Amino acid sequence: MTIRVLLADDQALLRSAFRVLVDSEPDMEVVGEASDGAEAVRLAKERAADVVLMDIRMPGTDGLAATRLISADPSLTDVRVVILTTFEVDDYVIQALRAGASGFLGKGSEPEELLSAIRVAAGGEALLSPAATKGLIARFLAQGDDDGRDPARSDRLGALTGREREVLVQVAGGHSNDEIAERLQVSPLTVKTHVNRAMAKLGARDRAQLVVIAYESGLVRPRTD
Questions:
Q1: Burial class (CB in 10 A: 0-12, 13-18, 19+), 147
Q2: What are the angstrom distances between the C-alpha of 25 and each of 42, 43, 79, 116?
Q3: 102 and which of 69, 80, 123, 198 could share a cystine (Cβ 3.0–4.6 Å)?
Q4: Which of 119, 96, 138 is nearest to 50 (CA)?
C-alpha cells in the first residue's frame, strides 16, 4: 500500500526538498503541498492523505490549530500528523501531541529518520525522535501540576483491566509491542490487542495519545531528574 503524504510548510524550498525525498520511496507519494494550516486541513480531505508532515509555525492557521482541526474531524480519523519543528523542546510541540499529533521530529533529522517517521505514523505508532525523550514530555505535561491533569481521563482509567493498565504504563515508557511482550511474558499479538482496547476505551487516536493520557491522568509520574 502506498502511503499518501501531504506536506505543510510555509517555506517552498523545504517542501520541494521533502517532496523529492518522499517521492523517491517506492511505498510513498506526495499528494499535495500546503503553505498554511487551513490549506493543510482542506487538502487532507481532498487528497485523502494518510500522513501530514506539519510545520508547527506557519502564517494564519498554524500547525497546532490545524492539528486540532484534523484531530476533531470525524472524516479525518485515519489521518496521522507528524509535527516538524526546529526546536524539539518547544512547548507548542507538547500541545500538538495533546491536540492529536502522532509525534514530532526535528527538521535537522536525517532523511532516513523522516522516512521512518512517515512509516511509523502511518502504522499508527507513536513517533518521538531520540532527542524528544518521554521524560522530557513528562516534564512539560507536569507543568502547572493540576492544570496538566485531566480528571475525566483519570476517571476513564477505571474502564481498563489490570493488564491493560500494565500495558499502558509500558507504552508510556516508549516500549514497542515486542518489548512489552517480553517484559510481561505474553505474545506480541496479545499486547497489540490490549493496546487497541485501551485506545478504544480512552478515546485515543494512536499510541502517542496513549502516552499523553498516561501522564495527564497520573498513571505514570514524571521523572524529576
A1: exposed
A2: 25, 21, 20, 11
A3: 80
A4: 119
Instruction: Tell whether the torsion through CA atoms of 97, 111, 61 and 4 is positive or negative.
Output: negative
pLDDT tens by residue, the chain, 225 residues: 899 999 999 999 999 999 999 999 999 999 999 999 999 999 999 999 999 999 988 989 999 999 999 989 999 988 999 988 776 555 666 777 778 888 778 788 889 988 988 998 888 766 654 444 455 555 555 554 444 455 555 677 888 999 999 999 988 877 778 889 999 999 999 998 999 999 889 888 777 778 778 877 878 775 544
The span from the CA of 30 to the CA of 42, in Å, is 15
**Residues for the chain: how many in total?**
225
**What's the grid cell of residue 103?**
509525534
Q: What is the dihedral of CA 99, 103, 107, 113, to 10 degrees?
A: -160
